[in-house]
Design goal:
Blueprint: H1 8-33, H2 43-55, E1 63-67, H3 69-72, H4 78-81, E2 87-91, H5 97-102, H6 104-107, E3 115-119, H7 122-126, H8 131-148, E4 153-157, H9 169-183, E5 189-192, H10 219-237, H11 243-255, H12 259-264
Parallel strand pairs: 1-2, 1-3, 3-4, 4-5
């Protein structure tokens, strides 16, 4: 009768454990990579912007606001909401950070902006793109802008919480943290928290600020965005506005009653 090799069992178990560890690592790596971006679309929307530019080209040194449908839905009131800052709205619904990168040479750089406001990432996460890839694509966007316009300031609006995509909130938070960390490495970059005030006392998305689709915002949602973004932009960008606009804004601020005066007027 053939004797059993006493060393065979431990070796076999060790190899199985090593193989299992490799498989787990590969699976984790695959999950972290997520899906790849598709080919950029939205050619018609970009052509519409360019057609409008040929009729009346925006003033140089303004603030370009680019992004997906949440930015597109702000077009009708964003100039008023962020006044007296000069705004060039360039949102196109359904876009991703990769689309913004692809069209930066056509609807950002030609305007020679002093600042760019970016809202992307919402559709990226919904499409299975990994947070790291969104961060890296935003980094490429920044590099492309700064290659031509090295002094341009770039503001990234945090990816918002929404009812319809609430199950994706962990991935959204991960992307936000990665981009916030990236922005902290360069004084020309700023991360703006747009989402905290969109959550209720239980830390869940407020129902009163979303349309029926539970994704796009009502006017109340844009008022939250206005109140989050405007102080940041005015503090950093008002000094670069034409003198007449600065003077009007400063005069308006100086004529507002303080709390004591408001109390006396009751």
């Amino acid at each position: 009768m053939q004797k059993e090799n006493k060393n065979m069992k431990p070796v076999t178990v060790t190899r199985c454990l090593l193989l299992l560890m490799v498989m787990i690592c590969l699976a984790q790596e695959s999950r972290s990579e997520g899906k790849e971006y598709g080919n950029p679309g939205f050619g018609k929307e970009i052509q519409n912007f360019e057609s409008a530019d040929r009729k009346q080209f925006p003033p140089p040194g303004a603030i370009v606001c680019i992004g997906s449908s949440s930015m597109r839905g702000w077009h009708s009131t964003i100039a008023e909401d962020l006044a007296p800052l000069t705004i060039i709205p360039r949102g196109f619904g359904g876009s991703t950070m990769n689309d913004a990168l692809h069209y930066v040479d056509r609807i950002v750089i030609p305007y020679n902006p002093r600042a760019v406001v970016v809202y992307e990432g919402d559709n990226d996460i919904a499409g299975g793109i990994a947070p790291e890839k969104i961060r890296d694509t935003f980094s490429s966007f920044v590099e492309k802008v700064h290659k031509t316009l090295p002094e341009t300031r770039i503001y990234f609006l945090s990816i918002k919480p929404s009812i319809s995509r609430w199950k994706l909130w962990p991935q959204i938070e991960a992307a936000n943290r990665l981009i916030e960390q990236y922005c902290s490495s360069d004084k020309r970059l700023a991360y703006v928290d747009m989402g905290s005030a969109m959550l209720d006392a239980n830390g869940e998305p407020r129902e009163d600020i979303f349309q029926e689709d539970k994704l796009h915002m009502t006017r109340a949602g844009y008022e939250i965005w206005r109140d989050a973004l405007k102080p940041v932009l005015v503090k950093a960008e008002l000094a670069f506005e034409p003198q007449k606009d600065r003077s009007a804004a400063e005069e308006q601020n100086n004529t507002k009653p303080n709390q004591a005066d408001a109390g006396d007027s009751k």
